[in-house]
Amino acid sequence: MTQDKHQELGLFLKKKRASLTPEQVGLPTGSKRRVEGLRREEVAELAGLSIDWYVRLEQGRPVRPSAEVLLTLSDALQLNRKEREYLYTLAAQRLPDETPGSFKVSSGMQQFLDLQNPYPAYITDHEWNIIAWNQAALSVFGDYSAMTRLQRNSIWRSFMDPYMEKLLDNWEGHAKLRVSQLRMVHSQFPENPERTELINQLLRHSGKFENWWNEQTIAGTPEGKKLIHHPDVGDIRLSYLSFQAEELPNATITVHLASDTESRQRLERLLDNKIS
């Protein structure tokens, strides 16, 4: 790193520290704060670093942080994907590739999901694991926060959670589509131990999955609309949009919308019951 890069790195850290409030990172506000944003010692503590070392880094001293240290700083300062890339570039380090379980959902992205209420919204990673959600998603699709990582996998749930089979009007078309999607990805990128284990578990525990996995031409129903039979409020008709954000490459954001007034009212009722 050149001296200019050290200085630029320090200024960037200082700017991001000033942009955060104690509440945003879970710290008490306190009665008097002489600095804007967080204190240096607060950032150091959040990142698990010594205050002296962090001060030297922010002052632009010739300190070379490791990729692991940059990751803890990124989390402490709640950096989005572009800011993480910039931080790693300044430090002459390579941003680690996304791996299962490594996706970081920023507070801004979570706020986006929450703003979709009463419409269910969630984020899935590239292996169909639900990694973030809003309250409406919990009220419709189940309590993801109480599930294990495997139980939050959409393909696993399609075959192993009886709730999903009862919930989805066209469960068979949905399940067949998931099999086709899984087979396509696995044929292109077979060297994935987590996915291989998922497939083996489903082959052992689900006869329907085994039958459809061995049918090379199965396609299922195209995505776009859902009719669900909710046990508490009855039928809900949904359409939905799926898209990706630069902040979370290889992850998909899905927002469900009510297809009619009655469905919207039922979603609102579910959310009111969830919150109360």
UniProtKB/TrEMBL annotation:
<dbReference type="Pfam" id="PF13560">
    <property type="entry name" value="HTH_31"/>
</dbReference>
<dbReference type="InterPro" id="IPR041413">
    <property type="entry name" value="MLTR_LBD"/>
</dbReference>
<feature type="domain" description="HTH cro/C1-type">
    <location>
        <begin position="12"/>
        <end position="84"/>
    </location>
</feature>
<dbReference type="GO" id="GO:0003677">
    <property type="term" value="F:DNA binding"/>
</dbReference>
<dbReference type="InterPro" id="IPR001387">
    <property type="entry name" value="Cro/C1-type_HTH"/>
</dbReference>
<dbReference type="Pfam" id="PF17765">
    <property type="entry name" value="MLTR_LBD"/>
</dbReference>
<protein>
    <submittedName>
        <fullName>XRE family transcriptional regulator</fullName>
    </submittedName>
</protein>
<dbReference type="InterPro" id="IPR010982">
    <property type="entry name" value="Lambda_DNA-bd_dom_sf"/>
</dbReference>
